[in-house]
Design brief:
The chain has about 150 residues and is of the alpha+beta class. It has three helices and six strands. It has a six-stranded antiparallel β-sheet with strand order 1-6-5-4-3-2, covered by helices on one side. A hairpin with a 2-residue loop joins strand 5 and strand 6. The N and C termini lie far apart (about 70 Å). About 5% of the residues have low confidence. Belongs to the AHA1 family. This is SRPBCC domain-containing protein.
Length: about 150
């Protein structure tokens, strides 16, 4: 009996990445990323979200007629790293089957902050390319707005 050879094929990753230099300390950029009063300036929040700062375990939940979308803060390292895992109840599997996230990494040098944003990986979704495409636009817009808010 001959050996069976299995080949693995890597799917194309669907990860949006953006880098931007911000003329502000990491503490200021962190506030823009974690305080709802500032988040509303660069992203949408549910109307009933309130003004409590983000922290590990915070859930941001949008409830629509036939689905819900949840962002959960899963990594929270002040002034360094913020990760919000994304889940849409329309997706085929339960939330724990996915590792799709918005990740913000900050590195301060000489009063400036390098902000690295990753969004995805959407390749596991049947409509992954659609999520990727809309996240490309979000990545461009959000990083510019975060920069403007932190520098003013």
């Amino acid at each position: 009996m001959g050996a069976i050879t299995l080949k693995r094929y890597m799917s194309k990753q669907l990860i949006v990445e953006r880098d931007i230099t911000i003329d502000a300390p990491a503490a200021d950029v962190w506030d823009i990323l974690t305080l709802p009063v500032f988040i509303r300036g660069w992203d949408d929040l549910p109307e009933d979200f309130g003004d409590t700062p983000l922290q590990r375990g915070t859930e941001i939940k949008w409830t629509m007629k036939d689905k819900s979308v949840v962002l959960t803060v899963t990594d929270f390292e002040p002034h360094k790293r913020l990760k919000l895992n994304l889940y849409n109840s329309d997706w085929e599997n339960p939330a724990e089957a996915y590792d799709i996230a918005y990740t913000y990494t900050l590195q301060e040098t000489g009063g400036q902050t390098e902000l690295h944003v990753t969004i995805g990986d959407f390749q596991v979704l049947s409509k992954g390319q659609d999520y990727f495409d809309s996240s490309e636009e979000f990545g461009d817009n959000a990083t510019q707005k975060i920069k403007e808010l932190a520098e003013n």
